[in-house]
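note to self — DONT lose this again. spent like an hour looking for the file last time. sequence + predicted structure for the chain T wanted, 204 res
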Amino acid sequence: MIATGRKPKTTGMQLAENKVELNKNQGVVVNEKNATNVAGVYALGDVIDKVMLTPVAIHEGSILAGNLFNNEDRTPDYDKIPAAVFSIPPIGTVGLLEEDAAKKYANVNVYKSSFLPLMHQLTGFEHKRTLYKIITDADDENRILGVHMLGLEAPEVIQAVGICVKMGAKLKDFFSTIGVHPTSAEELVSMRCLLYTSPSPRDS
């Protein structure tokens, strides 16, 4: 897999002619309310060069409409956005990566589970293994900072997990939930294998 990145396609929109400020990637510069430097001109979605996901653009648009036409005063929330890569196998992710969590929090626990789903224990397809990681704040009762999944149905599962992470779930909340058997997702409520606590031994 090669991830080459992308940038906003703003050429031909006559933004420079109207003195709309652009960043180095030619994305439209906006403030926290999606307003540009030109009065009455707003921008959202991929063109502002922030989080290039369709649901994020919908979120930004909904908030902007409420602010402009319903006297609301809200700003887009870019924290803990669930995302997926529809590769083979697929990837689901929400929250901080372990490296980023270790920079932001003093003590981070990293839990890891690698397993062969029950279906493929029957098929014998050893290459169909699944990998889950849970990142937590060890100083805040293992509040979940990030969940990362590689395997079958990861994009479907991460949407529900994203709600939990957004609500500030802690590892004990996962562990107190009864699993659905037989599923890969039930591993989230039973994985107690602590990989390491940051600062990581490999960094010392």
